[in-house]
Design goal:
- The structure is a single chain.
- By secondary structure, this protein is α+β, with helices and mostly antiparallel strands.
- The protein has 2 domains: about 50 residues; about 270 residues.
- The strands form 2 sheets. It has a 9-stranded mixed barrel.
- Helix 1 packs across helix 6 and helix 2 crosses helix 6.
- The termini are far apart.
- The N terminus is likely disordered.
């Protein structure tokens, strides 16, 4: 046997007492260490390539499945005036939270830490930069309906919202009229455009919520919204029933009686405390601002419900669309598990307000 230094050791050597002892390799068949183009190596390359293609195909299929579930396409059609049906524009993901969890700003930051953990689990970015010193926004939210909830029972929601700064209302109150339903085509076919002289904006959203009876899943509602400032309603009686029916012709289909009146749902004014907690980064240039809100009733300050939410705008025709949808879904599921003790499943913020006095409406949510 001959002695060799470590750096000169061959692949068929043994270590003994600090030296490398070369074995007799005359009886050991040599095997190539690199691809020499033989049939065996070609077969290995083919298997590897086939396995990689299969993985890519499965990944692409999963992404496409998420995109179809969260952002399906509306079948072509027209409204009565020939205007094409609105298509989905946004994906808004919402997780309803237990309102009693929020008693101070510190609780919002506590939840932000859970969002960070879920983002890490789902391999997406979450940054608090520029958000750590933000203060909560205060808004008043009023839901309007008939005494027997004719709007909500027919899947319509009418609300007015105004922002407060330093205890005083600022800006023009915002009116939102929406039709929210689990059937995409039905939601798309409802023409929510108001007949007003001022400007308005249409938003058609896919809203992702946890399952009604368990965590770790997803259900989808489609929210077809018309938003406009109250000043765009040029009448002295802006939100009385007669004015609303003229402004929102869809209400004529609800069999509203002459003695019906539009009033505050359950006589409850909602105070919303909302805090932007950070920015989610789903890659490929797609980001979304995340916020946490808690609703409480004005007067007695009863904590009603909380909500975590973020919103992405669709990029139809973009090759990245399906990939981003899959990442959204993964994060959404991950957060449900991470924040399990905070969740309140089976409802929406609006649903909580409508059920305050034990008079459950016919929900389409």
């Amino acid at each position: 046997m001959q002695h060799y230094l470590f750096r000169h050791a061959s692949r068929n050597c043994k270590l003994y007492a600090g030296f490398i002892l070369a074995e007799d390799v005359s009886s050991t068949p040599s095997r190539p260490l690199v691809d020499d183009g033989t049939p065996s190596h070609k077969a290995t390359r083919m298997k590897t390539r086939k396995k990689n293609r299969k993985k890519k195909k499965l990944k692409a299929s999963a992404s496409q499945s998420s995109a179809k579930r969260m952002a399906p396409r509306v079948r072509k059609g027209h409204y009565s005036d020939g205007h094409p049906l609105d298509d989905l524009q946004y994906l808004e993901c919402k997780i309803i939270l237990n309102g009693d969890r929020f008693t101070s700003v510190a609780n919002f930051k506590e939840f932000a830490a859970l969002v960070k953990q879920a983002a890490k689990n789902a391999d997406i970015g979450f940054s608090r930069r520029g958000f750590k010193k933000q203060r909560p926004q205060i808004r008043e939210v009023l839901f309007l309906d008939t005494e027997d909830f004719k709007l909500y029972n027919s899947a319509f929601i009418l609300r007015r919202r105004v922002t407060y700064v330093d205890g005083f209302a600022v800006g023009d109150p915002e009116v939102v009229f929406k039709f929210r339903h689990p059937d995409l085509q039905k939601a798309a076919s409802i023409d929510v455009r108001p007949k007003i002289e001022g400007n308005y904006r249409i938003k058609f959203k896919s809203e992702a919520l946890p399952l009604k009876d368990q965590i770790g899943g997803m259900r989808i509602l489609y929210s077809h919204n018309a938003e406009f400032p109250l000043s765009a309603v040029h009448t002295d009686r802006q939100l009385d029933l007669e004015s609303l029916v003229r402004m929102l012709p869809l209400l004529q289909t609800l069999n509203i009686a002459k003695d019906d009146k539009i009033e505050l749902v359950n006589q409850t004014a909602v105070e919303e405390v909302l805090l932007d907690i950070g920015m989610l980064d789903f890659g490929k240039g797609v980001t979304a601002k995340a916020n946490v809100a808690v609703w409480r009733s004005r007067g007695d300050q009863r904590q009603l419900v909380g909500e975590f939410a973020f919103q992405c705008q669709f990029k139809r025709g973009d090759a990245l669309h399906a990939v981003v949808m899959k990442r959204c879904e993964q994060f959404f599921i991950s957060l449900q598990h991470v924040a399990e003790q905070w969740l309140s499943v089976g409802t929406t913020k609006t649903g909580v307000v409508y059920r305050l006095k034990g008079n459950p409406p016919t929900a389409h949510e």
